[in-house]
Amino acid sequence: MIKTAKPIPFRKIAFGKVDIRRTDHPDGTITLTSSVPLAAHPHRVTDRLAAWAGSKPNQVFLAQRNSAGQWEYLTYLETLRAVEKIAQSLLDRNLTPETPIAILSENSIEHALLGLAALHIGLPHTAISTAYSLRSRDFRKLGYCMEQLTPGLIFVQELAPYLPALKAVAGTAEIVTAGRAVISAKSNLPATPFSALRKTAPTAAVGAAFSAINPDSVAKILFTSGSTGEPKGVINTHGNLTANWQQITQTYPFLAEGFTTVDWLPWNHTYGGNHNLGLVLFNGGTLYIDNGNPTPAGIPTTLENLREIAPTVYFNVPRGFEVLIPFLKKDKDLRENFFSRLDMLFNAGASLSQPAWDALDALAAETTGKKIVMGIGLGCTESSPGALFKQQEAGFAGLVGIPAPGLELKLVPRDGKLEARFKGPNISPGYWRHPNRTAEAYDPEGFFKTGDALRFADPHNPRAGLVYDGRLAEDFKLDSGTWVNAGLLRSRLIAASGGLVQDAVLTGLDRPFIGAIVFPNVDFLRKLTGKSNYAAMVADEGARLALKGTLEKLAAQNDHNAACIRRAVFADFKPSMDGGEITDKGTLNQSALRDNHPSLVEAIYANDHKAFVVEC
Q1: ω into residue 385 within 30 of 0, thus cis?
Q2: All domains in the chain, ordered by first residue
């Protein structure tokens, strides 16, 4: 008798009740809703801050390392007291929703306090990608955001790195900094120390402003570049955010017990700022601010933090998990601390590859004897951000789950696929000061058009969930009329490369075959070639043979033209933020990259293609 391996159990967590109702309409449209009602919840973002300050005043809310490397802690009571003082200072400045607050710098305790103070009195604020200030040369995107926002106050953690950007865009707005302000005298940029805001005694006006907040009051404006065009200022109301936190907490009820996380994800993005920080606040948890990130320069900081702090929930994006996995494999102490209390891993931003998922399962099982549930879902800035979530222990790459309580999902047939559209209390009312974009974003029934395609994991069982089927705007037709699922094919290319390919831009619109401009994993390429110069690495014969092997492996997995990449080239450039080639999330803008590098695209399709073009 052949013995089968005993299934590895999961560490148990509580899931919410699942009851999905499917309705098929005569025009082919399908709607899915949860029959589980959304429970009552507070409608002001800082309602829970006041509640936790009363019920567990000494619980740590935020922690961050200081310049000496020591953790500094802020309890819920300390947070509330600081927020009320800062809120009064904002009221004294007569700031209004027409002159909101702009935060240009990275995650920090001061960043959080200023944002919460604005939320506490109904004053909108925005956190803007640091790349717009620190990586841009012309500050065009930052300037556009400032023109749309007309801020009355701009905050930066440290003044010096932001001086060029502030000179370009600050205008008459007051500049506030948590760092040294003396440098501003040399630049004719007067700056207010953040500490001054924390010294203002609160009055009854703070409580009155707090009481005046309603579910439709604007909480945040988050600028998202998306894949095309200028940044869009997505409005998130107090009702949007609190409804979404309730939706997520009902989906994963164990969160309500409070949880600990170590998080680097930037608060200018909806995943880090709305989902992660917001869920910690809503459920009375603790967030350790990780000033690292998944880059060669940033990962040592993340590893140091994870060796010391054991999270109970850990959020990341695919690239973050992929960078972390090798360190977990080789560092036993890191691995044991990381998994010691972990109830859930959560991936968002893009689909996690199956090899990365399998590696995390194996590491957890090796360390604890159990797998850790991978939380995944589908959302966007406009859904505040969660809409669909996996509500079962097991899963696979691409699965995004089912609608959260209170959300209605409409699947609309389009070009042979089903486009996902959302409606519910967590859905944004539109774009800041942009009525035309707002009108275009919603269908006549009020559903937000995501542009994402979904398919059923099991057409006969909606409870099995939906699977991500690519971005409709990225898909294209070959000259044969065959549709190419660009998102799925790009994911398969990355998975087939064994670590060589970090990302790729697919080509082939109205062409006879699919091509790719490949952005390699530089660390992988350095080890493969033994070279340090990028141009030398991508010109190396071994690198090109590895890419050829990847194309051949991909071709062996598929038997039709729309799932094979015939030719590929290594990108000989870095994506440009100013050129719109990379979004504020760090993802590639496919159309901009193709448009900006026509010679590279033409090289792929030339009859006498050059030696640097790899062919399968």
Answers
A1: yes
A2: 73-213 (3.40.50.980), 479-615 (3.30.300.30)
